[in-house]
């Protein structure tokens, strides 16, 4: 069975190679090759999953050693895949959602002449992401980490003829680079501390290292997670990444890649457990991000950017849960999986809406679309109910557990974190209701554009609706399947460990409180957007609204602090370079030049002048000889 | 110093006398080699110095070297020098004005310093040994030299042979000029002359209408002025042309006068001849 | 008279020759000055030979003469070909440097 693991990666990798190198002759069938190969990977995943289910919990870790990558004495890097419960969860999520989105893209990208290349990139992403989650050591994980970064860059900038897309791709790449630097430093620290970077030895020898070192490693890992998962302070790229095609936003920037940071933290749980300071930082980052993303999501009129804010916020929940330690690891992953379903579904729904509305993204120009695209409306609506945590649906189970876990942290921290999580739930309910109301309810608000083309909203083709329906099923039932009877907890516990914590409030109280804030959030949204018509032009809004429209000034902050600061630093360095360094260099050169100009006169080309030098030299030699004899 | 070692180191009074006289001459010869304007004079001065050096060799018991110095150096090498001086057509006088700034002063300073150092070195050297060549030359100087050259120095001697051959070949290579085209025949040369239209006949010979017909005497044109064309270009370049026009005219007048006397004619010389005479002055 | 005087004479001639090399521009005269320096050396060799009572000094002087002869041949050939190409025997004219 172990030998199948490599096939998981090989299938999409083969697809990427074939599609990207195959040239135009594959244009006609390229998208089907990509879809079939990713589905093949999914099938292999399912086979492996059933195999794992058939084993005892202790024997559910499969290893496949392919070859030794760096066979240097004392520096052994193996290409080894590790399939355990955690990886298996991710494999199923990645290949399952990935295959659905491949199928969706067949319809969505139908009119794009570079569709084959798009599928090549998607397959490349799948391969890299699978390497990331299957790697048995941090160095191989790093390969996958960089691979998904590359695929993300290529796909955000897929419509590179749009300057905004090209810029967004560059922005994502650069911000991710900051995080990647954190990962590379963490790997180096691991190597100096433990002498290896394989998961097994590192995580089992955590006790040998000092807490300071572990905190350093953990903070560097957190930096990496922040970059990849768009957490404060490296969150600025995710909103712009929506410039990519919508299936990309759904797969990479909602369901899978952006959750890699959570995977990294959960996988390195042993390190974080031994570094409480770092854990505290993780929870703070998570709490801040979940509020940050939620507030941004409230103000955006662009449907994809509102969903991007939501993604940021939901990953904030996961990071918060991961920062809670063994109390929260399982729920972080559980929320990750359910979020993968409903957020992908929501994005696909948004893509379907845009598909029907001539790629219009401004929600103020939608309205009343439920009549025109019923399938999209229902699937999107189920995803909406799931994300706000409507009782019985996926989000209810996973988010509720996270809020409980946050309270269970105990002490003042527990109250603050739990409060933040509750507040986030209220805001989530508000902005998602807002999206729902502005898109599908009310009067139609679209107008003919300047060319007189009026959009004709219509339902999307089957290739697009089928994935949406499947994901809607996931949104509805996944939470129940996982949560009822703690199935997911028992599945994942051997890897991540679990503690109950001591919550100051009972689980029922938390659930009731969540219901209350949910109702409040929905109510406010309905009062604002459901009862009265939505203005076609955004009102000026309060100071907070305006700030939130500008992504809470994240870019302004980056501009003032980093860009301006960098410019000043550069300018002063240039000044130093010009005056001091160049001064010394040019001064040396000038004095050499002046000296040479004078010495040059000695080389006048007259043999007799040279003869004088020789004769003078001979005289000096004679004098020296005489002097030496005299002494 | 010399008094201290006088007994052991003295040479005969005759040799001392000879040294001081000839040594002075040798130094004068060396100085005039350096200072004479004409290369020919320099070469002759040097030859003189070399002959004096040959005498000193003889006085120092180096009979073979003394003779070789005269025969080879003075006789062959210096003649080669003179030959080259003639060959390259040295301009009449070499200007002694210095063109490189400071060169002369530097040279004199270096020379002076070097000389002082050499003298100081010789003065300080402990030259206490003075054996004379009596024993060494017992079997004859030439035999002694030969014994050394053909035994101890035989390899050096062989190598000098190679050196000489190389030098001879080198000199030939350096001075050899490859003819790239066939030399012009007389016919072609005359055709060339006709085509150019100047000097259709051969160039006028030197000494025409002049008393002398040596190659360095210019021929005179019918009006009595000398013509440059009559003398070879080399002599013209060297400035070695004798101006004999006035002399020739005087001679001509004297000849005519004698002829008049013999013919008993008392006519005086024509006026135009007088004018020419004044002009030539 | 002390035979060391021959050495003083030799030094004097050598110095005169060397200075001449530096002062004169005519390549042939420069060459003659070099010959003068060689002869001055020969005089020193011969004198030393007499002072030490063996003939080695004379042998060296003999070799010097042979080498000088070879040198003269080549040197004069060079002067002749130099004169052919430049129409001048001045050593200063051989300078091609810019100042």
Label the overall shape of chain A: globular
The best one-word shape of chain C is: elongated
Helices and strands of chain C, in order, run as: HHH
State the CATH topology of chain C.
Helix Hairpins
InterPro entries (chain C): NADH_UbQ_OxRdtase_chain4L/K (IPR001133), NUOK/Mnh_C1-like (IPR039428)
Organism (chain C): Streptomyces sp. R08
Keywords (chain C): Cell membrane, Membrane, NAD, Oxidoreductase, Quinone, Translocase, Transmembrane, Transmembrane helix, Transport
Protein name (chain C): NADH-quinone oxidoreductase subunit K
Q: How is this structure best described in words?
A:
The complex is a heterotrimer of chains A (631), B (281) and C (99). Chain A is built from 24 helices and 2 strands. Chain A is mainly alpha-helical and 631 residues long. In chain A, strands 1-2 form a two-stranded antiparallel ribbon. Chain B is mostly helical and 281 residues long. Chain B has helices at 6-9, 13-35, 39-59, 63-87, 103-124, 141-149, 154-175, 186-196, 233-238, 245-263, 271-280, and strands at residues 219-220, 226-227. In chain B, strands 1-2 form a two-stranded antiparallel ribbon. In chain B, a hairpin with a 5-residue loop joins strand 1 and strand 2 (226-227). In chain B, helix 2 packs antiparallel against helix 3 (39-59) and helix 3 runs antiparallel to helix 4. Chain C has helices spanning 4-23, 27-52, 56-86. At the B-C interface, helix 2, helix 3, helix 4, helix 5 and helix 6 of B face helix 1, helix 2 and helix 3 of C.
Précis, in short:
Chain C: One of its GO terms (cellular component) is NADH dehydrogenase complex. The complex is a heterotrimer of chains A (631), B (281) and C (99). Chain B is mainly α.
Keywords:
heterotrimer; B: 281 residues; mainly alpha; two-stranded antiparallel ribbon; 2 strands; elongated; C: 99 residues
Fold blueprint:
The complex is a heterotrimer of chains A (631), B (281) and C (99).
Chain A: H1 5-21, H2 30-53, E1 62-72, E2 75-83, H3 85-108, H4 115-134, H5 138-156, H6 163-194, H7 199-204, H8 211-229, H9 236-240, H10 246-255, H11 260-267, H12 269-273, H13 276-299, H14 303-323, H15 329-356, H16 374-388, H17 394-408, H18 411-440, H19 462-483, H20 487-496, H21 507-530, H22 543-549, H23 554-600, H24 607-630
Antiparallel strand pairs in A: 1-2
Helix pairs in contact in A: 1-2, 1-4, 2-3, 2-4, 3-4, 3-10, 3-15, 3-19, 4-5, 5-6, 6-8, 8-11, 8-13, 10-15, 11-14, 13-14, 13-18, 13-22, 14-15, 14-17, 14-18, 15-16, 15-17, 15-19, 15-20, 16-18, 16-19, 17-18, 17-19, 18-21
Chain B: H1 6-9, H2 13-35, H3 39-59, H4 63-87, H5 103-124, H6 141-149, H7 154-175, H8 186-196, E1 219-220, E2 226-227, H9 233-238, H10 245-263, H11 271-280
Antiparallel strand pairs in B: 1-2
Helix pairs in contact in B: 2-3, 3-4
Chain C: H1 4-23, H2 27-52, H3 56-86
Helix pairs in contact in C: 1-2, 2-3
């Amino acid at each position: 069975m172990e030998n199948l693991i490599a096939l998981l990666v090989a299938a999409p990798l083969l697809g990427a190679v074939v599609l990207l190198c195959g040239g135009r002759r594959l244009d006609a069938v390229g998208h089907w090759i990509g879809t079939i190969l990713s589905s093949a990977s999914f099938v292999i995943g399912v086979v492996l999953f059933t195999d794992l289910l058939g084993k005892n919990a202790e024997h559910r870790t499969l290893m496949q050693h392919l070859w030794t990558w760096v066979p240097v004495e004392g520096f052994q890097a193996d290409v080894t895949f590790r399939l355990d419960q955690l990886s298996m969860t991710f494999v199923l999520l990645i290949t399952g959602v990935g295959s659905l989105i491949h199928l969706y893209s067949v319809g969505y990208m139908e009119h794009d002449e570079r569709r084959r290349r798009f599928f090549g990139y998607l397959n490349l992403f799948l391969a890299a992401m699978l390497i990331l989650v299957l790697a048995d050591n941090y160095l191989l994980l790093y390969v996958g980490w960089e691979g998904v970064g590359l695929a993300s860059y290529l796909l955000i900038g897929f419509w590179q003829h749009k300057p905004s897309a090209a810029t967004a791709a560059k922005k994502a790449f650069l911000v991710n680079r900051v995080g990647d630097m954190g990962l590379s430093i963490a790997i180096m620290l691991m190597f100096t501390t433990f002498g290896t970077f394989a998961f097994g030895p590192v995580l089992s020898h955590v006790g040998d290292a000092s807490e300071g070192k572990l905190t350093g490693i953990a903070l560097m890992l957190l930096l990496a997670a922040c970059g990849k998962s768009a957490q404060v302070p490296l969150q600025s790229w995710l909103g712009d990444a929506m410039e990519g095609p919508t299936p990309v936003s759904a797969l990479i920037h909602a369901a899978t890649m952006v959750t890699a940071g959570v995977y990294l933290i959960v996988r390195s749980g042993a390190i974080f457990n031994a570094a409480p300071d770092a854990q505290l930082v993780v929870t703070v980052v998570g709490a801040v991000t979940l509020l940050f993303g939620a507030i941004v999501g409230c103000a955006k009129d662009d449907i994809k950017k509102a969903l991007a804010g939501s993604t940021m916020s939901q990953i904030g929940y996961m990071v918060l849960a991961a920062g809670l330690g063994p109390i929260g690891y399982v729920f972080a992953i559980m929320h990750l999986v359910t979020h993968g379903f409903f957020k992908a579904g929501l994005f696909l729904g948004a893509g379907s809406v845009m598909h029907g509305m001539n790629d219009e993204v401004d929600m103020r120009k939608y309205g009343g679309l439920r009549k025109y695209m019923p399938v999209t409306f229902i699937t999107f609506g189920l995803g909406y109910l799931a994300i706000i945590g409507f009782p019985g649906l996926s989000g209810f189970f996973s988010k509720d557990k996270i809020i409980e876990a946050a309270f269970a942290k105990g002490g003042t921290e527990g109250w603050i974190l739990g409060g933040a999580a509750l507040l986030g739930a209220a805001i989530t309910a508000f902005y998602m209701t807002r999206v729902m109301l502005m898109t599908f309810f009310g009067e139609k608000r679209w107008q003919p554009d300047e060319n007189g083309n009026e959009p004709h909203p219509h339902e999307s083709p089957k290739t697009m609706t089928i994935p949406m329906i499947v994901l809607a099923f996931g949104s509805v039932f996944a939470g129940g399947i996982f949560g009822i009877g703690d199935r997911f907890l028992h599945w994942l516990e051997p890897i991540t460990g679990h503690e109950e914590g001591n919550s100051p409030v009972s689980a029922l109280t938390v659930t009731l409180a969540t219901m209350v804030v949910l109702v409040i959030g929905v109510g406010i949204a309905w009062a604002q957007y459901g009862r009265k018509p939505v203005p076609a032009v955004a009102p000026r809004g309060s100071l907070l609204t305006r700030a939130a429209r500008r992504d809470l000034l994240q870019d302004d902050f980056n501009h003032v602090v980093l860009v301006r600061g960098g410019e000043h630093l550069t300018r002063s360095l240039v000044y130093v370079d010009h005056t001091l360094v160049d001064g010394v260099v040019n001064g040396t050169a000038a004095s050499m030049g002046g000296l040479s100009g004078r010495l040059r006169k000695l080389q006048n080309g007259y043999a007799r002048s040279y003869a004088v030098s020789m004769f003078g030299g001979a005289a000096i030699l004679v004098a020296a000889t005489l002097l030496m004899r005299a002494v | 110093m010399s008094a201290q070692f006088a007994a052991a180191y003295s040479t005969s009074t005759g040799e001392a006398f000879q040294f001081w006289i000839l040594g002075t001459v040798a130094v004068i010869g060396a100085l005039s080699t350096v200072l004479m304007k004409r290369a020919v004079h320099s070469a002759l001065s040097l030859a003189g110095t070399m002959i004096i050096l040959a005498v000193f060799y003889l006085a120092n018991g180096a009979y073979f070297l003394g003779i070789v110095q005269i025969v080879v150096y003075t006789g062959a090498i210096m003649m080669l020098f003179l030959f080259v001086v003639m060959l390259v057509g040295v301009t009449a006088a070499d200007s002694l004005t210095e063109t490189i700034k400071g060169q002369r002063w530097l040279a004199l300073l270096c020379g002076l310093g070097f000389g002082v150092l050499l003298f100081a070195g010789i003065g300080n050297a402990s030259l206490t040994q003075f054996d004379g060549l009596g024993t060494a030359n017992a079997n004859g100087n030439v035999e002694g030299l030969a014994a050394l050259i053909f035994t101890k120095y035989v390899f050096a001697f062989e190598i000098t042979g190679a050196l000489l051959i190389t030098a001879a070949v080198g000199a030939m290579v350096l001075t050899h000029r490859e003819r790239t085209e066939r030399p012009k025949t007389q016919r072609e040369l005359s055709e060339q002359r006709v085509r150019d239209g100047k000097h259709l006949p051969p160039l006028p010979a030197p000494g025409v209408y002049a008393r002398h017909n040596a190659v360095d005497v210019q021929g005179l044109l019918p009006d009595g002025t000398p013509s440059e064309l009559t003398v070879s270009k080399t002599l013209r370049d060297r400035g070695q042309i004798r101006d004999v026009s006035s002399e020739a005219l005087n001679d001509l007048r004297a000849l005519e006068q004698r002829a008049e006397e013999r013919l008993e004619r008392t006519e005086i010389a024509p006026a135009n001849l007088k004018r020419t005479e004044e002009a030539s002055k | 008279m002390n035979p060391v005087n021959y050495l003083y004479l030799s030094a004097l001639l050598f110095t005169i020759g060397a200075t001449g090399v530096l002062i004169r521009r005519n390549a042939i005269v420069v060459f003659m000055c070099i010959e003068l320096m060689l002869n001055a050396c020969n005089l020193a060799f011969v004198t030393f030979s007499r002072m030490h009572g063996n003939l080695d000094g004379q042998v060296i002087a003999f070799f010097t003469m042979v080498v000088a002869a070879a040198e003269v041949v080549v040197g004069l050939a060079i002067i002749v070909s130099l004169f052919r190409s430049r129409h001048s025997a001045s050593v200063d004219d051989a300078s091609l440097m810019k100042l």
